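Protein Record: Sequence and Backbone Structure Tokens
======================================================
Tokens: labelled as protein backbone structure tokens, with as many entries as the chain has residues.
Task: work out the structure tokens from the sequence, keeping to the layout shown below.
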Amino acid sequence: MKGIEHTEHFDKQVQETGRRTVEKRLRTADDYPESRAVFSGWYRDLRDQGAKPIDRRGTIVMPDYPELELTRKGDLFGPYTKMRNFLEEGGVTEPRGQKAVGMEAHHLIEDRLLRPFGFSRDEAPSVGIYAHEHAERVHAGDARVSAELPRRLIYDIDSVVDAHVSAYEAIGRHEWGERVKQYVADNAVRILEAYRTGTVPGATADDIRRVEYFFQTLR
């Protein structure tokens, strides 16, 4: 019995040590460098080949995939399906069930939270990221959007944005939060139409007025 107790205690110690190691890595690293290292390398290559920035921050679009935007820092943004297709065609993904070594498309806004406003999973905004970073940094780290939201079935768009921005700030991904705000601001007319036509369940006149003001703050 003592041997069993000792083994169980030892296993718990190992698990706790592993958890602390991961948490320390999350706290002390500016970000996981792998994904951004790859994409920033692509950025430099494309710029050397003559790709022109589309904004003052130096963002460029991917050849043959104009919906995908690549930043100087190494973030690749775009619609979920376009991102997934691009990564698959580039041969950098891994089949589901394989060890997490390939790249994936991470929904910048959880698609279940966008659905009440008329957005599909496929068109939702995403970012390209290595599978292990996706698992460790986003889903096992501090970027848990559910922890930022009250327990409800439907959330107003301002709550959705604030929760995602807060979650990404917690893992040092300020740029992701800015993309969330940009996406919602770009689709303000569509989202407000969903409110005004009754598509958003339970939305009141006060909710609509608050959301209208929220969109003004995103400009």
The chain has two domains: 1-30, 31-217. The first helix runs from residue 2 to 28. The chain has a mean pLDDT of 82.
